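Subject — a protein and its fold
Encoding — discrete vocabulary of local shapes:
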Amino acid sequence: MDLPDVTLRLWRPQEAPRLFDLLSRVEVTRWFGSASRAPLTDVEQARQRITQWALDFDEPLGTRAIVAADRAAPVGSVLLFRAPNALHGEIEVGWYLHPDATGRGYAAAGARQAVLEAFAAGHPEVWALTHTDNHPSRATAARIGMRDLGVVDGLWHEGPSQLFVVSPGTQG
């Protein structure tokens, strides 16, 4: 699979303006769960998120910046977390990009790296849920070798979602 070179790392406090620029956009946050769907309204909220993400980081679980080799600022975030209300401790991966970075494979590269780190940490599979009409995220899940299990309603998150899973040796 031909993906761009990216690294995953914690967001840095000085990057709060970039994170604010990203998370203040309705076109980005509309895909988030209801608890985090509201766009940020000031840079201080971005600083608080960065601080909280650093405190909550438990490798490989947490929210990290996707940094592309060909870009100065982070292009987005990848999240690896225990699925809410999971029955068996399932690990979920999620991602989002700044609109100026879409269509270049950064989401797939970051998500794939996070999935590989989850496998290296001993997690037997990684799941993803997307909104059924979020075609870019559905394409990203397919691009990294996640198997589409169809639409589920109310699994871990409210409403219908497209469910994907990947196990070691099956990813792209």
The first helix runs from residue 16 to 23.
